[in-house]
Design brief:
The protein has 285 residues and is an alpha/beta fold. 38% of the residues lie in helices and 14% in strands. It has 2 domains: 2-129, no CATH class; 139-284, Rossmann fold (3-Layer(aba) Sandwich), CATH 3.40.50.11350.
């Protein structure tokens, strides 16, 4: 048996579920552990994949304890004292493609698996899985969707909020700064002059202060807890400017347009050479 541990928000969960589909396609017996990483304060994040109506086999408590050798029964505790722990968890080696992820068995796979390389040969299956079957658009989102489809639309994802905490600043800070967005907007305009930019952000006040004019349209009204509305609207746009975030990565990936432009930051994280997260179509600035 192979387990994939679900963690993070919607974008991360989508990469993890895509890996689950890949392992299933290889004929493996696969489970998803959707309990361990979600405490009482994060329980609302567990069901974010439900917007797609996907299903998966859940890892039971007994299966988790078996694969991680974490049972607290007297017998298991005594054996660990004598023989040591036999934890079969395996964490991805880096932020890049790790072939060991597809080979380990039995194992509980830990990580974010943020590269298309894991599921390149089943892309259409992944795309079909991530259809918004259970999404009911708000009135505002439905109106925004119509705007996006009628023009040469560009989604612009500006992630601040949680990225401004000291821990996240060290890893993600200083990459998608104002200068990056100015370069990205200029690159889009150079290739497609008649465009309209739709702004997605968890700090809309800052965003509207720095991006004003009739060509910039703030997408407002959707809370971070209703991220599926924004993800769907991103996918409706015809071009994309990404933040260094799995959320906008998927927003662009789910857009199946043949002529789309996808602009991404030159690096994804500080101090880590994350190159496999980029797809061939991405233009790095």
């Amino acid at each position: 048996m192979v387990g994939v541990q679900l963690s993070g928000g919607l974008g991360n969960q989508m990469f993890e579920y895509a890996l689950y589909l890949k392992l299933k396609s290889m004929g493996k017996d696969v489970r998803i552990d959707d309990v361990t990483c979600y405490g009482a304060q994060e329980k609302q994040r567990v069901n974010q994949l439900s917007v797609f109506g996907v299903s998966y086999e859940h890892m039971t408590k007994q299966e988790y304890e078996q694969i991680t050798d974490s049972s607290m029964s007297p017998l298991h505790r005594a054996r660990r004292l004598l023989c040591g722990r036999k934890d079969l968890s395996y964490r991805e080696a880096s932020c890049n493609y790790d072939p060991e992820i597809l080979r380990r068995e039995p194992a509980l796979l830990l990580g974010y698996f943020q590269t298309e390389r894991y599921f390149a040969d089943i892309k259409e299956q992944v795309r079909e899985a991530f259809t918004f079957r259970n999404l009911t658009l708000t009135k505002e989102s439905a109106a925004m969707e119509q705007q996006m489809k009628k023009c040469e639309s560009v989604s612009v994802h500006i992630r601040r909020g949680d990225y401004l905490t000291p821990a996240n600043q060290a890893l993600f800070g200083g990459i998608c700064d104002l200068d990056y967005y100015h370069r990205a907007v200029a690159e889009i305009r150079k290739r497609k002059p008649d465009v309209k930019f739709f702004l997605f952000s968890n700090d809309m006040e800052w965003t509207k202060e720095h991006f004003c004019g009739s060509e910039f349209v703030p997408v407002e009204g959707n809370s971070e807890q209703a991220g599926e509305q924004d993800l769907y609207l991103m996918s409706c746009c015809k071009n994309h400017i990404l933040a260094n975030s799995s959320f906008s990565w998927w927003g662009a990936w789910l857009d199946n347009g043949k002529d789309k432009l996808v602009i991404a930051p030159e690096k994804w994280m500080n101090g880590r050479g994350c190159c496999d997260i980029y797809t061939d179509e991405m233009i790095r600035v």
